[in-house]
Each structure stands twice: as structure tokens, then as C-alpha cells.
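testing teh design pipeline on a random one, pls ignore if ur not involved
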């Protein structure tokens, strides 16, 4: 392994990340056609409903019992970035906000001082498969912003910049590539300060294509994940599919693809470099703050749950939309 690569490692569930990122998971579920409730039109026997994370027949129910997904649950002290490339996600939260997004859309939610939300995967097609492909990334917040007001923003796929090179397509979910800048993140995000060089890039490479990554500052953590394809070379090091690599800050890295189309995700950013205390959906700086978060959630439920069901989904015929806590509505075809 050359000196520009810190290490190469197999991908688990979730993937390993570096500060300022806390968590990254890749979901690929080949759901069957949907039933009347927008759940799978298939038997659910033999599944650990409420905790089904083992792939059976090509898909999982996660914490859903009727519809796949994650019924309402709390977060505090960090941000979630959810990229849905195939299928749809139905969002509802304790602030009264809601949305349906997919087919390349991204939801960026600053949990801050506390929010409950639900993320369900409605199987809209009744006469065709419902493939779901998504990333969920957790981005930490520094101490000064841990208890900021919650914030929810949609990055519609029509607005996300795409950079094209010979045989390469790169989507800028966050950060910039040359003169191309991604959609502005929430205002209190670690990504909102350009000096932190936060980047979230989706990269697709044709067989034999190559890409030179722009050089970062000397303190930037950068990880590259190969989740689709066969093999790429990073300068003189080989990385096979379902592996990640932590790259040396400031190094010039050329990615050379092999014989199959490759899908990669790149995460980078300046480390927050503060203590991290985690307990499930809470991320603070100390264990005392975790205990306080748990007490406050027991007392307030972070605003309660204004929706009829824990795993609420929107009407089947509803298009892509975002309803914000202030009542503002965005709709996309």
C-alpha cells in the first residue's frame, strides 16, 4: 500500500467513517410489488418484525411491521443526510413537517436539540417491483451547535449539480468540485462553513475511466467507498468492491476503474476533534449530556407525535413534496 492511503478495509453494516462523520449505511432492497397498505405483497412469516435486518428474498423490513422502514424515533446532537437514489422515503416528524422524496433526492435534517421523525419506504408500485437504494449519513455537530433548533431541508435531485468528465459522472450532494458548488446545507451545519471542506460526492465511473480527486487541505479526513463494480486502483493500491479506503490529507489521488461500471461514495471534512458520547440516536460530548438527553426525551418526547401512526405513510398517489414546520409547501412532479 502506498503512502497516500492510510488503510483499505471491508465494508460492514454500517460503514466505518471518520470525524466529522459518525455513521454511513447503504441500503439496497429489491422489494416486490406493494399491497394496499404499501407494504410488501408477500408473506412476512419468518421475519423478525420490528427488527428485521437480515436480507431474506432480497429485502428487509427494518423496524417496520407493515411497511418497511423506521417508525418514529428521536435524534439529538447531529445531522442526518439521506440520499434516496431508487424508490421513495416518506418523512414525518414531531415538528409537523412531512415529505416524500426519492429518485435522487436528498433530505438534510439537523436534529439539534431534539426531534422525532419517521422514515418509511412506501412500496408504491402494485404491479411491479419496488427497488430501494439509499445512503444515510450522520454528520456530527460541534459542541456549540449540539442544541441548535431542529432544521429540515430538501435537496431536490433537479437542483443537485452534476459534473461530467470522460466516462465519469459526479453528483455534488455537499461541498464543491472546481467551480461547481452543491446546494447550501442547513445554516448551523458543520458543512455550512466552507473552510471545513465538507464533501459528499456520488461518483459513477465507466469501465476503464479514471478520475483525479482534487487535493484537500492538510487536516481533512477523506474516505472513499466502492459499493458497486469490481475493482479500482487508488494510485498504486488496489481496492475491491465492498471495500473502503481512508486517504491521506493533501494527497493527490487518481482513481482508475477496472472492467465494470463502478459506484463510489466519497465523504470528506475537517474533523470536529471533540469528545463523542453516543447512545443510540443521541450524540453529545459527555455521558452526563447523554443522560440529560434521555431524561428530556422521557419528559417531553421532543414535542410528541402529531401523526396518526408510528409508521405513517402518505397517500399512494402523492407526488414528491416537502411540508415545512412553518406550513410552507414545496411540490415536485
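output:
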Amino acid at each position: 500500500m502506498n503512502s497516500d492511503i492510510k488503510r483499505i478495509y471491508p465494508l460492514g453494516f454500517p460503514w466505518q467513517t471518520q470525524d466529522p462523520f459518525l455513521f454511513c449505511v447503504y441500503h439496497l432492497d429489491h422489494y416486490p410489488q406493494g399491497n394496499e397498505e404499501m407494504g410488501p405483497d408477500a408473506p412476512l412469516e419468518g421475519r423478525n418484525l420490528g427488527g428485521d435486518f437480515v436480507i431474506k428474498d432480497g429485502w428487509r423490513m427494518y423496524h417496520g411491521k407493515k411497511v418497511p422502514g423506521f417508525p418514529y424515533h428521536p435524534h439529538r446532537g447531529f445531522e442526518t443526510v439521506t440520499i434516496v437514489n431508487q424508490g421513495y422515503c416518506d418523512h414525518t416528524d414531531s415538528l409537523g413537517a412531512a415529505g416524500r422524496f426519492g429518485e435522487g433526492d436528498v433530505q438534510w435534517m439537523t436534529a439539534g436539540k431534539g426531534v422525532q421523525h419517521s422514515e418509511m419506504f412506501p412500496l408504491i408500485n402494485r404491479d411491479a417491483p419496488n427497488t430501494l437504494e439509499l445512503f444515510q449519513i450522520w454528520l456530527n455537530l460541534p459542541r456549540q451547535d449540539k442544541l441548535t433548533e431542529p432544521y429540515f431541508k430538501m435537496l431536490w435531485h433537479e437542483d443537485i449539480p452534476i459534473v461530467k468528465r470522460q466516462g465519469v459522472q459526479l453528483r455534488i450532494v455537499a461541498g464543491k468540485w472546481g467551480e461547481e458548488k452543491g446546494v447550501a446545507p442547513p445554516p448551523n451545519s458543520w458543512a455550512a462553513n466552507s473552510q471545513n471542506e465538507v464533501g459528499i460526492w456520488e461518483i459513477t465511473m465507466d469501465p476503464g475511466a479514471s478520475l483525479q480527486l482534487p487535493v484537500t487541505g492538510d487536516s481533512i479526513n477523506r474516505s472513499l467507498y466502492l459499493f458497486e463494480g469490481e475493482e479500482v486502483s487508488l494510485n498504486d493500491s488496489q481496492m475491491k468492491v465492498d471495500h473502503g479506503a481512508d486517504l491521506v490529507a493533501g494527497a493527490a489521488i487518481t482513481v482508475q476503474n477496472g472492467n465494470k461500471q463502478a459506484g463510489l461514495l466519497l465523504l470528506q471534512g475537517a474533523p470536529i476533534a471533540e469528545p463523542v458520547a453516543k447512545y443510540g440516536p443521541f450524540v453529545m460530548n459527555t455521558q452526563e449530556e447523554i443522560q440529560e438527553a434521555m431524561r428530556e426525551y422521557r419528559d417531553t418526547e421532543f414535542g410528541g407525535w402529531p401523526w396518526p401512526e408510528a409508521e405513517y405513510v402518505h397517500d399512494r398517489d402523492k407526488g414528491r413534496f416537502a411540508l415545512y414546520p412553518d406550513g410552507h409547501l414545496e411540490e415536485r412532479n
